[in-house]
Amino acid sequence: MPSRPPTSRIETWFAELEPRSPGAFPDGSVLPERSQLLAEALGPGPTGWAIELGAFMASRVTAAIPELAVDVVAGEVAKGCEAVALGALSLVALDEDVSFAQMPEVLAGPMEVVARGIGIEHMLRSIHLAHSTAVGFLLDAAERLVPEAQRFTEMRRINEVLFGIVDVLTTHMAAEYARAHEEWVAGSVALRAQIVEDLLAGTPVPMDRAVRVLGYDLNRWHLGIIVWTGPTASVEPAQLKTVAAETLAAAGCASTLVHPIGAQRVWAWGSRTTTPPDAVIPTAPPPHGIRVAIGTAGAGVEGFGETHRRAAEVARIGSMSTSPGCVFRYQDLDIVAMLSTDLSAAREFVARELGDLAGSTEAVRTVRHTLKCYLDRDRSLAGAASDLQVARNTVAYRVQRAEQLRGRPTTIRRLHLHAALTLVEELGDMVLTPTSHSLD
Questions:
Q1: What one-character-per-residue DSSP string does 156-198 give?
Q2: 93-108 per-position pLDDT tens digit
């Protein structure tokens, strides 16, 4: 899209569009390069407005269709909605044809939803939800900004353009879904996926057939891991497989099974014959944007499922974690995993055990971190001082201050106190936010 002064290219009312949030452009964009191109033609105000429209479309779609609100799929929905919002504004404002070849994010979704067994009906419904949202946004803007003499003509033009987009998008989406589904069913990946699903569900599977299809011996010790990346990270699927293989090799696994789940997540297992694999953290960290969850070893078919479930639990923690690390082991976070299964109950537990020590100011955070370190070191002032690289008296003062904030000594319900501090250390605001008892 060429760069020209915005006012020379569009009618006045389009140039007056502004987002509600000052940071919508460029900070709020999930497609920064695409939004920058539109900003060069329309200006930052209209572009920010379109970014907000895309976010609202995605929010409405995922709220109405829970099947599209899961991890990577939700990310693809957000990208697709923003691509459509940017393209629709360009088409309406500049009268430029924006082909779907220029918006690959719109058609990336079917690859993910087919892999998760989500039906085409949900994809088509999402298009109509997004369309009604876009119509409402644009017609409201036209009613505010277009002179009355031109308003009816302009609104009719907007409707025609948006209905044209829906018609083309529906056709393309149905064709792309059919292609992705045919490829999925025709490939051996579908058969492998079914066997893995049956094994994890505890459904009886003939062992000789499972071993033959998977190319993996199930009568061994297994270590399950999950490798994933967020929707905004630029990572090739092959990188996830490489990280999985390297992690399992570091654990001493002689054989591996790598099972992609969509384009941004991989389930993997590694096995050994006589001794359990070690859940070790690889010496070389994974590339930026990639995270790894490592379960604990399990034996045989039951162990195959159990180690995966533990990896899935620690992946859940890793997705919420405030720690700077990118490799998460179940053996390190088992307490956090068990206590955070019900986040609402976890928040209440933290608030009950910590009192004012659950505050969010930097001073309280420092005192809270010191107390956890003190308890980690079995209430050794010297040990905590060494870990924190502060004076022993500083640790003593902070522990005393922590007791004041909590309202009781550290010796009372010490186990509960330590567990609450561990939850906060790992999950931060996720468990510090008070539970709301008002009706939603």
A1: HHHHHHHHHHHHHHHHHHHHHHHHHHHHHHHSHHHHHHHHHHH
A2: 876 655 544 566 666 6
